[in-house]
Known about the structure:
Strand order of the largest sheet of chain B: 1-2
Number of domains of chain A: 1
CATH topology of chain A: ABC transporter involved in vitamin B12 uptake, BtuC
Shape of chain B: globular
Oligomer: heterodimer
Largest sheet of chain B: 2 strands, antiparallel
CATH architecture of chain A: Orthogonal Bundle
Amino acid sequence: xxxxxxxxxxxxxxxxxxxxxxxxxxxxxxxxxxxxxxxxxxxxxxxxxxxxxxxxxxxxxxxxxxxxxxxxxxxxxxxxxxxxxxxxxxxxxxxxxxxxxxxxxxxxxxxxxxxxxxxxxxxxxxxxxxxxxxxxxxxxxxxxxxxxxxxxxxxxxxxxxxxxxxxxxxxxxxxxxxxxxxxxxxxxxxxxxxxxxxxxxxxxxxxxxxxxxxxxxxxxxxxxxxxxxxxxxxxxxxxxxxxxxxxxxxxxxxxxxxxxxxxxxxxxxxxxxxxxxxxxxxxxxxxxxxxxxxxxxxxxxxxxxxxxxxxxxxxxxxxxxxxxxxxxxxxxxxxxxxxxxxxxxxxxxxxxxxxxxxxxxxxxxxxxxxxxxxxxxxxxxxxxxxxxxxxxxxxxxxxxxxxxxxxxxxxxxxxxxxxxxxxxxxxxxxxxxxxx
Amino acid sequence: xxxxxxxxxxxxxxxxxxxxxxxxxxxxxxxxxxxxxxxxxxxxxxxxxxxxxxxxxxxxxxxxxxxxxxxxxxxxxxxxxxxxxxxxxxxxxxxxxxxxxxxxxxxxxxxxxxxxxxxxxxxxxxxxxxxxxxxxxxxxxxxxxxxxxxxxxxxxxxxxxxxxxxxxxxxxxxxxxxxxxxxxxxxxxxxxxxxxxxxxxxxxxxxxxxxxxxxxxxxxxxxxxxxxxxxxxxxxxxxxxxxxxxxxxxxxxxxxxxxxxxxxxxxxxxxxxxxxxxxxxxxxxxxxxxxxxxxxxxxxxxxxxxxxxxxxxxxxxxxxxxxxxxxxxxxxxxxx
Lengths: 436, 336
């Protein structure tokens, strides 16, 4: 019966969160409340992913943004219909250059393992140079051919034309693949080197997504992605839903918007519950206890015969895959893929605030953190604005200082997030729901 | 003649810009490395610190401009620098008192400091955007050029010319002066020596009566000075936009790690390595070979190894190579 008090406390905290959504629903409208809720669900999944890496194993991944973006890429590549013309124009050349790239990388790895030191580095350098020019020889004309196909709307290879919901799994696989490469390179390093290496890889992923327009249109943005739920217009024109709206006595337009958002919320909730179930199951298994043992004392765990590096790689891939799933879901609900919108503050560091505030090492904490932080990230803007308006109400409407403050009030939300993070880190370092 | 022309061209488009960028990165990396050497954590708030120092300098510059104070042909920002430095040092010391000091007393793991620095990054980020907004600000009012291309061509009679912008000249001179002063301080003064001792072996330093609080305070002051100068020089040379400072964090960390975290000389070398590789790999060499090769040998295309969009990839790749080949950096830094 020892666990009774904290359980009550946790239920109370989640209830308060639910109550806040109700308040927002009544005050600011149900559509707005559901919009926040949907992104809270996605944030909770991302925060679970980071928690798997940081909370279970103490791995500092500062490249969350990159994995989120890879999930988004998966959403595009799975759901968009293929562009036949582009594939015939440059598909073969692209495939060839990809194969050569793989051969080059493979021969570099073989060389670095098999060749003895005096010849190793010059040989690797030679392979890099030759590989670079051969790859470019096939790659550049292929890309030019692809990007010339209907550049205003396409100019890329397109995707598979499958339902977008299947991209959620593909997003996880993409992110896991990238995590395997990053982990292989940087997991043996010290914690802050891993942080900087992941920061770097995330910036590179964004750079590639922005500038490789044959892949997912890059900075030209891919808009109008298919949806897993009905469109509002279809709901409005369907007599069945019109009947429901009438019997509820609400406007059909408002009804359709809320209905669609509820569909998303249902799908996201299912994913969240699945991830949460497996995360909890893993944490309570011998595997989870081994991870905690490794986290708390690597040397001791290694002395006990645990493969520390292998376990780290495993947990890094798992966590990144979860983040990738969430990234694909995010692009799905946005209905568009816009690489320039990925910024580290929003997609990496904010997720970190969620995990730390929620309680690192505790999955429920990570979920609660995702909800709380996203809620306040959104609400800080109107709250900050009304605060500034109240504080400056003594000044004239045209006062320059007042206008400046009101104009820039939105930026106070990063300040608020920093403050929350520092206060939690200092006064309650275990977070809202501490690790058991 | 063609041979000289091609190298003048290279000097104008590669060597001068890379040297200037290297100076800016080196000053930034010195700040990161100093924090690492004494406090043993990677300071993620360093980019925002640079932006804050530069921002105060800009505000003071504008105030000076409105009073008609100027040191033409030099940019007024140089005159405003001490105010920016004072403001940033004050901010950093307040931050240290309320944030980092607690974890020092607790003897927390470096990773806790790192997470705290992410919180500080958010705080500074909010303050900067709240005060000056997220947009581009121009505050360079000095003479545009020291040497113009046309003047150079007239002087030498070559087809290609070298231009040296005032901001580039200022960056080089100020960086050399500040680095010389820093090394004099670290190597010749008693305080500087005590800092190096503290960085090398903390317990021994404490036993020999070095006051850790004082070392930490001076370390933060030096960091503030370097960050403001680096931020202002970068803003003068390119333009001031808060977001770019956040993006500078990666090349700065790459420079510091490539040189060896905690080693000041390494930070400088790292800054130049990163800057030169970034610019040399993304420069289009077509015109350079145009002077060197016979016309029939000229290949098509720009002869550019990497698109400029991938300059981040360059610093990261260097970082990875160094970490794989020599994890402590070129000039053996600390590894904990």
